[in-house]
Design brief:
Keywords: Signal. It contains 3 helices and 14 strands. The chain is of the alpha+beta class. The N and C termini lie far apart (61 Å).
Length: 162
């Protein structure tokens, strides 16, 4: 009987820590300009990572924010979000992002110009074929205001700082 309990305990320990996820929460909400972001099983849902940070599915949140999202297939984990003249380059597995402005070159191609690295205190990850990010640093790079309402468990995002 002791061996059975030991096996069950080990199984659940491995299951929980295999993705670096300590907790998931259906109660974490995100609102952009007072409009709730709808999370589905297909889009993914926010969760709390091993550093006790909330990670959210990158695409659904950034697209509702009004950014264009581009996955660079050949890059092995680089995602770019663009809104207006600002761009954010996400490096999956890293704890930083790049914020940059693109300028049109002489041949009509857009090239990064004025790049600023932005540090995160947790890594960006891929989980269930989706990119998850700590949303504050990414949206603040787009000059959004990001706050946390502990009472409603909601990440509140305003398009422009007040």
């Amino acid at each position: 009987m002791k061996k059975l309990w030991l096996c069950i305990t080990m199984f659940f320990t491995i299951l929980v820590h295999s993705n670096g996820v300590l907790a998931t929460s259906d109660s974490i909400n995100v609102a952009i300009d007072n409009k709730p972001v709808e999370f589905t099983p297909d889009s993914g849902k926010p969760f709390i990572d091993k550093n006790n940070r909330i990670l959210v599915p990158f695409r659904v949140v950034l697209e509702q924010f009004g950014a264009k999202v581009l996955w660079i297939e050949y890059s092995q984990g680089v995602v770019i979000a663009t809104k207006d003249d600002l761009n954010v380059r996400i490096f999956v597995g890293e704890n930083f992002i790049d914020q940059f402005i693109t300028e049109t070159g002489a041949r009509g191609s857009s090239e990064p110009h004025h790049t600023w690295p932005v540090a995160n205190d947790t890594n960006l990850i891929i989980k269930d074929n989706r990119v998850y990010i700590p949303i504050r640093s990414v949206l603040e790079a787009f000059h959004a205001q990001v706050t946390w309402d502990d009472k409603t468990k909601t990440i509140i995002i305003r398009s422009e700082k007040i």
